[in-house]
Every structure is written in structure tokens, then in C-alpha cells.
Write a structure and sequence with these properties.
Elements (H helix, E strand, L loop, with lengths): L2 H13 L2 H7 L4 H15 L4 E3 L4 E3 L1 H27 L5 E7 L8 H11 L3 E7 L2 H9 L5 E7 L8 E9 L1 E5 L9 E2 L8 E4 L5 H13 L4 E5 L3 H9 L5 E3 L10 E6 L4 E8 L6 H9 L3
Parallel strand pairs: 3-4, 3-5, 8-12, 9-10
Antiparallel strand pairs: 1-2, 5-13, 6-13, 7-11, 7-12
Helix pairs in contact: 1-2, 1-4, 2-3
Length: 288
């Protein structure tokens, strides 16, 4: 049994197609099929049920693929650790980034890291803080920038606080309050809002603030992208509560302080259980 055979089996299980698996592994399909057939003869089990139209993983195949993934990860880690012992950092660095990163200049940090360690492949995932904490705890992600309400610090990960800030009201330049210097949440009670999805951590601080103020609000638009949020505000379809750092000056928008508005905390979170050499090196390069 060879590692390459394991890679082929994992690729087939994930693609459910010999053709797609062969393309992914950069090998002709006949060679991949031959290797899988040889592996099945050696194991004396069928890993995949296949016909001319479909491929399914057998129970034996599912058990094998799970163990093969672990073996491949161990082999890759062994190669990375051996290289690190000679001063060469390689492997994969996986970073999570929320849409509203305001404190850490992640692109510049990654650029500096890449220049110093070109053998490391960098994967940046955009998404939600709760998804990133789950991925880090499962050792599927090395580090992430999180944005959370003051009342909900990170869980199941190592972390340090980067910044605390109060969100501002983002209004169209034609909004009735666009000329104000300060607002309270009650001033926005009649407005329609755009915000992150209801179960997203990026929404929690605003929901909490409105509950504490005893004000009900109408969130008619739920989106994940900051640019779309700002465009909806610019078109006078909604107002938003966002970090002042993500609101461009001018551009048909006004950012107004909200004295009792929600407060947000930005964190750097990471996996501190046996981190890879690439992860350790990247975290050491970040400003403290």
C-alpha cells in the first residue's frame, strides 16, 4: 500500500467520480483506476461501488478513507517538521478573515510572510467568527480574526484582544439624520436596517444593544458582504451599524456616532495545540 493510492482513494471519495479524481490528482484516469483496483485486491475489499454513471463509497471504503486521511495528514506533517528542523518552513497556513477586519492589516502581514517563506501555501477563508472558532478547535484552521460582542468572548481557542470600538450609524447622505453629529438608538427606531444574518456573531452586538435600549428594529436585509450593505444604505433602502473603519468617506454615505450604540471587540484567535511550523512562524511575525 502506497501513500499515492491513499490520495487517489480520498480524491475519489470526495469527488465521487474517477474522472474528476484523476484530474484533481493530475494523473490519467486509467492509471488511477489501475491503482485503486490493485489496492482493493490487496485489501480484499471493494472501496467503491461504481457503474458507468455513478460512484458510491462502500462501508469498507468509508472506513478506509477516514484512516487514509489521517495517514496522509501525518505524512504531510512529518515532511513539514523535517523541513522545519533544517530551517525551511513549508506546508499550509489556513487563516480565517471576517468581512470587518479593522485592526490587523492582514494582507500586509501575509505579504511579508509570503516573501519570507515562499514554500508555504496560504489559504484565506472568509466567513463568520463562529465558523472560524469551530474550525480552529477542530484543528482545521490555524488562526483567524474574530469580531464579537463584548458579552461573548472567544471559546475553545487561544486568543488575544486586538481592539474595542463602538459602531456608528451608516446613513445615506439624504437621510433625515445625515446632518446630525450624534444619535441614540431611539432616533433610529422607525428605520429599516441591513445587517448580518440573525444567527451571525457579527449581528449579536447590535441585537443586544437594541434589546438593552428597549427599542425594536426592522432588519429587512440580511447580507454578509460589507460592500452590498453600504450600497443598500447609499440607495436609501436601509441604515446600518458598522465599524467606522469600514465606512468610506464621502461616497454618498454618512457615519454618525451613536452614544448608546453597540460595542464590538476584535480578536486574534489561533490553535495553540501543537501548531504547525508555518502557523507558529506566522503568529510570531504579527505585531503584538
Amino acid at each position: 500500500m502506497e501513500l499515492q493510492q491513499m490520495r487517489y482513494a480520498v480524491a475519489i471519495a470526495e469527488e465521487l467520480s474517477f474522472t474528476a479524481a484523476a484530474a484533481r490528482c493530475h494523473v490519467v484516469q486509467s492509471a488511477l483506476s489501475h491503482q485503486i483496483a490493485a489496492l482493493e485486491r490487496e485489501l480484499e475489499v471493494s472501496l467503491f461501488a461504481r457503474s458507468s454513471r455513478r460512484v458510491e463509497v462502500t462501508p469498507a471504503g468509508a472506513a478506509f478513507v477516514a484512516a487514509a486521511r489521517a495517514s496522509l495528514e501525518a505524512a504531510d506533517r512529518a515532511q513539514v517538521e523535517a523541513a522545519a528542523a533544517t530551517g525551511t518552513v513549508r506546508g499550509v497556513l489556513t487563516i480565517g478573515m471576517i468581512p470587518t477586519v479593522t485592526t490587523l492589516d492582514l494582507p500586509s502581514a501575509l505579504a511579508a510572510f509570503r516573501r519570507a517563506y515562499p514554500a508555504v501555501r496560504v489559504r484565506v477563508r472568509e466567513g463568520r467568527s463562529d465558523e472560524f472558532m469551530t474550525a480552529i478547535a477542530a484543528h482545521e484552521m490555524d488562526a483567524a480574526v474574530l469580531g464579537l460582542a463584548e458579552q461573548t468572548p472567544p471559546r475553545s481557542v487561544a486568543w488575544r484582544e486586538l481592539n474595542r470600538e463602538r459602531l456608528v450609524a451608516v446613513l445615506s447622505e439624504g437621510h433625515r439624520h445625515a446632518g446630525r453629529r450624534r444619535l441614540r438608538l431611539t432616533d433610529l427606531a422607525e428605520d429599516t436596517f441591513v445587517d448580518f444574518p440573525a444567527d451571525a456573531p457579527g449581528r449579536a452586538q447590535s441585537d443586544i444593544a437594541f434589546v438593552q435600549a428597549g427599542v425594536r428594529r426592522d432588519v429587512a436585509f440580511e447580507v454578509m458582504g460589507i460592500e452590498l450593505m453600504l450600497d443598500l444604505v447609499r440607495r436609501d433602502l436601509a441604515v446600518a451599524l458598522l465599524s467606522p473603519a469600514v465606512v468610506p468617506s464621502g461616497a454618498g454615505l454618512r457615519a454618525v456616532e451613536v452614544t448608546d450604540g453597540p460595542r464590538r471587540v476584535e480578536y486574534l484567535a489561533w490553535d495553540d495545540f501543537n501548531p504547525s511550523p508555518a502557523a507558529r512562524t506566522f503568529l510570531e511575525m504579527l505585531p503584538q
